[in-house]
Structure formats: structure tokens, C-alpha cells
Amino acid sequence: MSSRDVVIVEGVRTPFAKAGTALKDVHPGDLGKTAVTELINRTNLDVDLVDELIFGNTGSPPDAVNIARVVALGAGLPLKVSASTVHRNCASALESISVGFEKIKSGTMETIIAGGTESMSQSPLLWNKEHLKRLEALGRARTPMAKIKGLMSLLSANIKQVKELATTSPMKSTPFKPRIALVEGLTDPFKGINMGQTAEILAKEFGLSREEQDQFAVKSHAKAVEAMESGRLAEEITPVFTGKNYDKIVSEDIGPRKGQSMEALAKLKPIFDRKNGTVTAGNACPITDGAASILMMSSEKAQALGYKPIAKVRGYGFAGLEPERMGLGPVYATPLALKRSGVEMKDIGLIELNEAFSAQVMACQKAAASKKFAEEKLGLSTPLGEIRDEILNVNGGAVALGHPVGTTGTRIVLTLMKEMQRRDVELGLATLCIGGGQGGAIVLERLN
Predict the structure, then answer these.
(1) Which of 110, 265, 267, 291 has its CB 3.0 to 4.6 Å from that of 35, i.e. a possible disulfide?
(2) Is the CB of residue 28 less than 8 Å from the CB of residue 90?
(3) How big is the CA angle at 66 (ends 63 and 70), to the nearest 5 degrees?
(4) If we measure between CA atoms, which residue out of 82, 108, 326 comes closest to residue 198?
(5) Is the domain defined by 6-124+285-443 classed in CATH 3.40.47.10?
(6) Which of 238, 255, 215 lies closest to 75 in space, CA to CA?
(7) Of 27, 131, 285, 433, which is the active-site residue?
């Protein structure tokens, strides 16, 4: 161990809940505050020692644009502690860890709280530009006559829209039909396709059947349910109090389904390619709310404070690829992380690979084992290495648990290091694909 080695002392997360369910009314700032407050309590951390809080977030609530600062102050960190929000789509919370790693490794800082928070339930609706122009005109009106004219313009447009909807498809674009920010955010601006369509591309290119994808989903739910019932997932979760009087408690993930079956999944229709597709709501990750945080320090600082860190960050990597094949991002980023860590895939004992879609994970498995893919896409003479089922997402993955986009990068690191500790595994890999055509990966070494 070097004094500048970067270690993770502890981590904690909130339960993950499907959007529109138990956490729908909880502000993402409050979700983050809950995770950080419990992290401080579990580590008995002197908050005056924190140099910075770095949090991932993609939804950017209008009332908390730098949500990291809101989380920091809400959790009781001193005013002097700086806070920054980072955004790398699905890997935002992994970005928070990589930024923290660099600041500690360089000697700039000693103690950092990293993590992420996301409320996908609270993603806003956006008004059509034509409607906004009319609202602006009404707002600028100063005389009674101008205000009446502006109001009549709004009413006439509304009447016209009602008539159009009565005679045409409801999907027709109209002035009063809002745009869904979440849908736009999950659509690639260069290719014009959504994330589910990228999964369909991989399913076809790698010959992944609907049945194979559903089987993967069933296993993900079964592993997650078993991890919940055994108490393993509970070790990384702190409850969230909700309700008008904070009289309701959410203490476990809302997503994993006990008894999920092939028969139930077979009833679901493809949603991204309705005619020939294989990706359904059942073999894709649900839209989710939740937050997670970890405490990072230099090895020297942790030792001086008497902490026994769980893991050391050996190295990380980010890489880009075609946006329409973004799901293969882990296969591109992992070689960088392994090289910087001085290890090979065969040395890895556990892997957390985010399950954006069953097809996406299975495509990564095939690509990682392919010599042709390694030569043509990665510039390697040999395959990256097998991603074995028995060490992959052993507590289930996002198909069951969910994927709060700005949080998942920290969640997979937290889940990985806890399981490495339980199984006495020396090295682990956490990796995920990133919307827009990127991948991120990080290698951990168990310390205790």
C-alpha cells in the first residue's frame, strides 16, 4: 500500500424504487441527503475532515441545479466543504468516483464523499415551442386589450388541437402536447434512436433470441430476491421516510419480483420494435429512483483515523464507441481499467455489469470472448476474456433492481465491494454502458 493509494472506507444507498411508486414524491436532493447522512453515521465521520462532496445526477432539478451542494448542506456538511455535480449519463455516479480518485491520488484532497442521486419519477414535461410563444406573448401583455388578445390566441389554439385530436392520431404533434423530458433524455441526439432501440440492434447483431433474454431476466430477479431475503442487500441499504408526516418507511428495493417466470415474461410485447423486436419491459431495466454514496480517502488518511477500508481503487477507464451500439461500452472500457490496474480479466473474481437490458449484457459477454471482436474493435490480439455467469451480478442486476441513471455507477461499486468482502475475493470489476456511446469500468482490490 502506498500512502497515496485511494481506498473506499464504506458505502450506503437508499432502496431503489420503480418510478411512480414509493419514492416518487421524494426530491432527489433528499434521497442523496439520506444516503450521505447514513454514511456519516455508519463511519462516525468527523464532517470537518471532508474536503469535497462529488455527486452524479442527470435530471438536474430546476430548483437544485448543482444538486451536490444541496445534498452536502442537507446532510450537515460544513459550509466550507465544496460540492460539485458531475454528469456522464449512465456513468455519472462512476464519474464521481473517478474524479474523487484523481483528486486524492494527486494529493489535492484527502477525504471525499462520492455518489449519485436520481428521481426519474420527477422528470419534467416540456411545453411545445409554439405553445411557449403564446404564453410568452400573454406574459408580455400590458394592456387589458393585449391580455385579452393573448388569451384568445391560447384558447383558439386549444380548440384547434381538440378538433385535431378528435380526427387524427393522438400521437400527432400539437401546440399543447408536452414533450417528455425523460424520453428525450434517453434518445441519442446523433442517431435519433432511444436506448431500447440500441439494445434491439445488439440483439440482432449477436443473434440473441427473445427466450434467451427472458431467461436472463428471470435469473436476475431470482438472484435479487434471494439477496434480499438473505439480508445481503439490506447491508447496503438505509431506509427512506416518506409521506406528508414522514410516517411511511421504504426499507427495501421495489423492483425484484419473487417467482418471476418465463410464462409471465412471454406475455409482454416488444416495445421498441413492435413488429420484429425482442426487447420488452420485462427484459429491460425499469425506470427507477434512488441514491448511493461512498466514503473515499487516501490510504494514509484512513490509517491515521483508524479506519479499516473495504477496498482499494486499482484503476478505472472510460472509452467511446458508436452511439447505436452503446451497450457494448463495458467491453471497450474494461481493457483500459485492467491495464491501468496491472491485472487481466482472468484475475477478476467478481463482476458487476449494469443490466440496462438483458440483450446488452449478453452481447457484452459474447464480444468479450470473441477474438474477432478484439482484433477488429479493440485492437487486441487476444479476446478480452470470458465474463462468466457464475461471477456476474451474483445479487441480481438492474433488470430486477432498477437503474436510476445518475446513481447506478456508485451502486455497482458498493454492491461489488460488499460481496468481495463476503466471499474473500481479491479483485473485482464494476462496469456499465453509457448512453451516447461510451463505457466505464473500475477495478477494486479487497482490503478487509
Answers:
(1) 291
(2) no
(3) 75
(4) 326
(5) yes
(6) 238
(7) 433
Active site annotation includes 90: yes
Pairing state of beta strands 125-126 and 17-18? unpaired
Answer yes or no: 433 catalytic: yes
First-to-last CA distance in the chain?
Answer: 13
Question: Model pTM?
Answer: 0.92
User: Residue 388 half-sphere exposure, CB side, CA atoms within 13 Å?
Assistant: 9
Residues 6+ apart with CB under 8 A from 106: none
Give one DSSP letter per residue of 25-36, joined into a string.
TS-HHHHHHHHH
Cell 456511446 belongs to residue: 437
Q: What is the pLDDT of residues 238-297, one digit of tens each?
A: 999 999 888 999 999 999 999 999 999 999 999 999 999 999 999 999 999 999 999 999
Active-site choice (27, 90, 285, 364): 90
Catalytically annotated residue among 27, 131, 221, 403 = 403
What are the extents of the domains in the chain?
Answer: 6-124+285-443, 146-179
Q: Name the grid cell of 4.
A: 497515496
Q: Is 190 exposed, middle or buried (0-12, 13-18, 19+ CB in 10 A)?
A: exposed
